[in-house]
Amino acid sequence: MIRRNWIKLSTSHAETNKQALEVVHNSARSSSRRGAVMVIAEQRVAEGVVIEQFMGRFDQTARREYKWRVDMAMNAGYRHVILDLTGVSFIDSTALGWLVLSQRRLQAMGGKLSIVARPGFVRDILALTEIPEWIPVFPTREEALAVVTKTPEQA
Question: Which domains are delineated in the chain?
Fold first, then answer.
């Protein structure tokens, strides 16, 4: 397990928050529950855009880490969050609720949430629950990034 320094965030100190976000850049965290592991990596890819990668189970156990990561990104000034769920093997209703809540919070700040998910269980659950009607779902990071970073002139 990688140790991390917890940093108190303040929305009025965007630069400090961006530095704090970089402290945990490419960090990993694992939480076990019956052998389930959720590993998280982070990558800042463009101005105001961050990719959060999740692997393992995205369930009740992982919700605190997920919420912390999204809050940290928002407090650091990132308005567009791309969640890479290609390594997620299981997703439950708690995680689905957090996805919708995150989308609403980001929209209120002028941003958006996007999801990357391959065909399979996770993408099927997203489709079954009609998540793509609220949150765009892409098959690759590149496609998600192309849409998120598109300028109004390119639209």
Answer: 21-148 (3.30.750.24)
